[in-house]
Amino acid sequence: MKPAQRSPSFVSRTIFVAIFLALSAGTAIAQTADPLPSWKPGAARQSIVDFVRATTDPASPQFVPVEERIATFDQDGTLWAEQPLPTQGIYCLDRVPALVAAKPELKDVEPFKTVLSGDRAAIAKLPMKDLETLLMATLTGMTADQFQVEVKNWLATAKDTRWKRPYTELTYQPMQELLQYLRDKGYKTYIVTGGGQDFVRVYAEKTYGIPPEQIVGTMGGTSLSYDDSGKPVINKDPKLLLNDNHAGKVEGIYLMIGRRPRAAFGNTPGDQQMLEYTKAGDGARLAMLVLHDDVVREYAYGPAQHLPEVAMGAFPQDYYDMAIKNGWVVISMKNDWKRVFAFEK
Amino acid sequence: MKPAQRSPSFVSRTIFVAIFLALSAGTAIAQTADPLPSWKPGAARQSIVDFVRATTDPASPQFVPVEERIATFDQDGTLWAEQPLPTQGIYCLDRVPALVAAKPELKDVEPFKTVLSGDRAAIAKLPMKDLETLLMATLTGMTADQFQVEVKNWLATAKDTRWKRPYTELTYQPMQELLQYLRDKGYKTYIVTGGGQDFVRVYAEKTYGIPPEQIVGTMGGTSLSYDDSGKPVINKDPKLLLNDNHAGKVEGIYLMIGRRPRAAFGNTPGDQQMLEYTKAGDGARLAMLVLHDDVVREYAYGPAQHLPEVAMGAFPQDYYDMAIKNGWVVISMKNDWKRVFAFEK
After folding, report:
1. In what order do the strands lie in the sheet with A70-73?
2. Which of A209, B21, B199, B267 is close enough to B77 for a disulfide, judged by CB 3.0 to 4.6 Å?
3. Could B251 and A259 be called an inter-chain contact, meaning their C-beta atoms sit closer than 8 Å?
4. Which of B275, B272, B247 is nearest to B261 (CA)?
5. CA–CA distance, B37 with B339 (Å, rounded to integer)
6. Is omega for the bond preceding A8 within 30 degrees of 0, making it cis?
7. A residues 258-297 closer than 8 Å to B (CB)
8. For B117-155, how does the pLDDT look when each residue is reduced to its tens digit (9 = 90+)?
9. What SS3 state is found at A25?
């Protein structure tokens, strides 16, 4: 047979095929670029990749419609460092001098007196009631706008004592990649933190790419008043609406999201109920816990018999056993992460 | 000059141009199709179009980044009919027989006795304390999952007395178009309702295209327990967390969204603070009120001197005056809407 003459319509078909192939190749390149470059190969990484494939591949029997793709992340110790104190705790301590300058009568009153002394050992021993007084005094009693400015100003200058860097640089690079990977796959990422909801909102969009409406945290009561020009003003009142920790994390998710997460990530017993609630749903579910076992690159405060304990955010042995029993995947910072922080070489 | 020979590369350029023009034409057609076909030309419609152009045209001095495009909508009387009673009120009344069947001791106790009598006049006269008892008894004391099933089942069969249609068909077609128009322009649409947050969540995604996490409403407390199989269960407790009406709407927006809306829509004095808060922000802001002045196609319950008053959702004269003074745009159902409901001819 004679070859067919190359008519314009044949050429146009050829060009369409070429365009199609070029586009497909582009897609293939984008898909094969490693979305989790800071994760070492292993069970933790594989469980993430398997979960994402099972819930986002339209051919998968466990496919999840995009509107139901909800992933919730604890913050302190899960997305960023929480030692020697969760960042908001340091903020509250740092606010005391300004507070006492505005209200000098607090100077000789506990817990302000002890905080002003700078005696870390004495501060660590303050009873719970005094800590609550400290939180209420530094996190309420101002307008929402004033609070936002105070937090922003503090974050712009405060540095942690170990790395001498702004706190917002102490996020875990592998978790940042995980957030982005899930979002690229249609997941809506939420922070569900025991920290103050409006504290985290100040920096979460810039720090994690998570907007204010996707921050679930400990919630305080507010009230409305009018300023001298007649404009409405939101005041932060010394009233607890919801303590977003333990069972409160599930209550917070019900309140703020209204859907059961498909994936949840935490690092302490404060995350237990969120992980249980996530795994109790049908279909593919992912529950993961960050184990702090890297004393060189970060801190080690896991199960007592394996690792040295430090004061905060403990991950006791029975919690580790519960994780294994419940099919929660434990992430070893030491063994599963190529690097912890973006600023590492 | 001789015409250039039609080489394959010339043909490929031609095809690219043809594809480009075809795509551009498609875009142009999509952009010029009327996004608000149920709105008559006039000040209300124009204020919407002007606001959207000012905040979404990149060349506009009042351009708003997409992440800050938040629009909040009251529900009852703003997105759907609220006469003779807001739909959730009818749900609570309709639940009483099932409640009394489960707890026969309530049969002779107020307000259940009066509700069971079916005497509408007596029901309308029940004191506020009795109404609160009724709400708590029908909206709390079950698991969140049970509640969702009860509401879903009721919505599937209940019909309003005037149009004999499911309540979810009583949404205002012009407002549905407005929701879609704003979403097409990058706005995140929220319901901010005095109704129960988890009641509205049951149907809002299907009815309005608004997902559960974008419903802000009156919030009740919950608690966590475990069922016989060890799975966590969310219980709806008889505890009010936030009454999402009047100032509570601003508090609810702060809690659930954490950003000031760019546009807000309501219909009663319960929306006043939300509209004030919205307009108090900088740049272009839109505040609108639906005026029920269409006794033929829906109901008329606006300012007393102009329109017959009915029991609920009043729009008193001083509120009308406040709207005009504050630059809030009043939407006349009678004059601004070509049709009210989708089911109209």
Report:
1. A232-242, A215-226, A188-196, A70-73, A263-266, A286-291, A329-332
2. B267
3. no
4. B275
5. 9
6. no
7. 258-259, 273, 276-277, 280
8. 999 889 888 998 999 999 999 999 999 999 999 999 999
9. helix
A251 and B205 in contact by Cβ < 8 A? no
Interface mutation target, options B213, B218, B225, B227, chain A, most CBs of A under 10 Å: B213
**Burial group, residue A211, by CB count within 10 angstroms (0-12, 13-18, 19+):** buried
Residues of chain B with C-beta less than 8 angstroms from the C-beta of A198 = 254, 258
Neighbours of A206 (CB within 10 A): 10
B222 CB neighbours in chain A (<8 A) are 251, 254-255
CB-CB under 8 Å, A242 with B254: no
Structure tokens at B296: 């033929």
> B224, A247: Cβ pair inside 8 Å?
yes
Interchain contact B64–A (C-beta under 8 A): no
Q: For residues B149 and B144, what is the distance between their CA atoms, to the nearest angstrom?
A: 9
Whether the CB-CB separation of A234 and A222 falls below 8 Å is answered with yes
Phi and psi at B216, nearest 5°, equal -110, 125
Interchain contact, A251 vs B224, CB within 8 Å: yes
And the tokens for B40? 């008559």
ipTM of the complex: 0.89
Closest-CA distance of chain B to residue A331, Å: 24
- Say yes or no for a CB contact (<8 Å) between A11 and B8: yes
Give the Å distances, CA to CA, from B184 to B30, B35, B36, B181.
11, 9, 12, 5
CB of A247 within 8 Å of a chain B CB? The answer is yes
Query: How far apart are alpha carbons A205 and A276 in whole angstroms?
Result: 27
pTM for this structure? 0.90
pLDDT in tens, B193-240: 999 999 999 999 999 999 999 999 999 999 999 999 999 999 999 999
The Cβ of residue B90 has, within 10 Å, a number of other Cβ atoms equal to 16
Selecting from B11, B67, B213 the residue whose C-beta is nearest the C-beta of A259 gives: B213
Q: Residue B310: which pLDDT band, with cuts at 50, 70 and 90?
A: very low
φ/ψ of residue A217, rounded to 5:
-150, -175
Name the closest residue on chain B to residue A8, using Cα atoms: B11
Q: How crowded is the C-beta side of B90, counted as CA atoms within 13 Å?
A: 17
* 3-state DSSP assignment of residue B302: coil
Q: Please give chain A's pLDDT, 345 residues, in tens.
A: 444 444 445 445 555 555 555 555 545 445 568 999 999 999 999 999 999 999 999 999 999 999 999 999 999 999 999 988 899 999 999 999 999 999 999 999 999 999 999 998 898 889 989 999 999 999 999 999 999 999 999 999 999 999 999 999 999 999 999 999 999 999 999 999 999 999 999 999 999 999 999 999 999 999 999 999 999 999 999 999 999 999 999 999 999 999 999 999 999 999 999 999 999 999 999 999 999 989 899 988 866 444 444 444 567 888 989 999 999 999 999 999 999 999 997
- The beta-carbon neighbor of B219 closest among A188, A205, A255 is A255
